[in-house]
Write a structure and sequence with these properties.
about 400 residues; alpha/beta; Rossmann fold; eight-stranded mixed β-sheet; 13 helices; 8 strands; about 45% helix; about 10% strand
Length: about 400
């Protein structure tokens, strides 16, 4: 698919999607265009300003170039251009949720009725009202999403799921695909090319939200049982109903990826998609240890996320790190500088069975296009995929 086609691509409708009316669609299209202008025109102007003015001035004062993203930030945040860029970016994010929330609230009774799936069901849904929700998820409205990922009005509420499904499409300006599935599809494509003989019997998606990245595995591995977990009940009600209406068999359950109720060695493939940068540094080792416990001999884990800071030059690190400071992503910066391969080894994987590769962005695979820092998507080669494997015959 060509870049210009994505700019015009509508979100693929399904019975659970909150469909905007004419007024709501106009506002949402404005936000989508607003974000596109910020990324295509305003942010590149900031980069030019940095190289032409801010960096030379820093060298004049300090006798050296900035060492890292932190020094770049200290130099650049004083400039009025950055003030304007940061303010407009934050406004676009808050406008995005405001416009989508209007659609969700107007259609909520209808969406909740559609979420009641009659028997026989394809997959399943198990909720745990006693689950202790992790503080690093409940303590902040990640991406400024009203109520955050764990907002739940109880009973049949699907507000968080509906808000996330439509909100992500507007946020990503369509660059996640018509079903917001790009990260899962990109990872599936990578896995099938990299491990062509790998045929998992059971697959687990950690932190699935509404199943955007989960469903591609149903198609990629049609003989496998696909499971998906998250801590948000509203997200999961929506995810289950969405999958059922789309004819995809997935077993959803409300669980914390740090400690699940699945047996040892139950899964052949465990995946996650942009989960790590929304996870605390204390929780990550526990998630990796749980992944190790759940993998069967011969199994592998594939965690897809943004490239680490070590793969980017200074300005690229700085512009990505703006999410940490200005978009309610408190764990973003710390996670992108962490040695995740070392964390896997500490969790029990052998060093030779842990490595990082990159999955080409599925939407642009034919075009061979790569995202740049400051634009939505993974800068450079593609989504970073952290692979950890359990050799055959290894006891759990």
């Amino acid at each position: 698919m060509k870049s210009e086609d994505i700019a015009l691509m509508p979100q693929a409708e399904h019975p659970m999607l909150p469909v905007p009316n004419a007024s709501e669609r106009s506002r949402q299209d404005f936000v989508r265009s607003f974000k596109a202008v910020l990324q295509s025109d305003v942010e590149p102007g900031l980069e030019k300003l940095y190289h032409a003015k801010i960096k030379p001035e820093y060298v004049r004062v300090h006798g050296k170039e900035p060492d890292d993203r932190r020094e770049i930030r200290q130099a650049i945040i004083k400039d009025p251009y950055f003030h304007a860029f940061g303010s407009l970016t934050r406004v676009s994010q808050e406008l995005q949720w405001d416009t989508v929330l209007d659609s969700v609230e107007r259609q909520l009774p209808e969406l909740e009725a559609r979420a009641k799936i009659p028997d026989p069901k394809l997959g399943s849904l198990i909720l745990d009202p006693d689950l202790q929700l992790p503080r690093y998820v409940t303590g902040v409205d990640i991406h400024c999403m009203p109520g955050g990922y764990t907002h739940d009005a109880g009973a049949d509420d699907v507000t968080a799921g509906a808000l996330y499904d439509r909100g992500v499409f507007v946020y990503a300006m369509g660059m996640m695909g018509a079903h917001n599935e790009d990260i899962g599809q990109s990872t599936c494509n990578y896995l099938r090319k990299r491990f062509p003989d790998f045929k998992p019997k059971r697959i687990l998606d950690l932190g699935c939200t509404v199943g955007h990245s989960t469903l591609p595995y149903v198609d990629a591995y049609p003989d496998a049982e696909v499971y998906a977990i998250d801590v948000g009940a509203s997200l999961l009600r929506y995810a289950h109903a969405r999958a059922e209406h789309m004819g995809k068999r997935v077993h959803f359950s409300q669980q914390n990826a740090e400690q699940t109720n699945f047996p040892d060695g139950y899964f052949d493939l465990i995946v996650s998609h942009i989960l790590f940068h929304e996870t605390s540094s204390k929780a990550l080792p526990r998630i990796l240890a749980e992944t190790r416990r759940l993998l069967a001999p011969g199994g592998l884990a594939a965690h897809a996320d943004l490239p680490s800071f070590g793969d980017l030059e200074g300005y690229g690190q700085f512009i990505l790190d703006c999410e940490t400071y200005y978009n309610n992503e408190p764990f973003w910066g710390a996670m992108l500088e962490k040695d995740q391969q070392d964390e896997c080894v500490k969790a029990g994987f052998a060093p030779e069975d842990v490595f990082v590769e990159f999955a080409q962005v599925a939407l642009f695979e034919e075009e061979g296009r790569a995202f740049r820092p400051g634009e939505f998507g993974p800068p450079g080669t593609g989504w970073q995929v952290l692979i950890s494997r359990v050799p055959n015959g290894v006891e759990q």
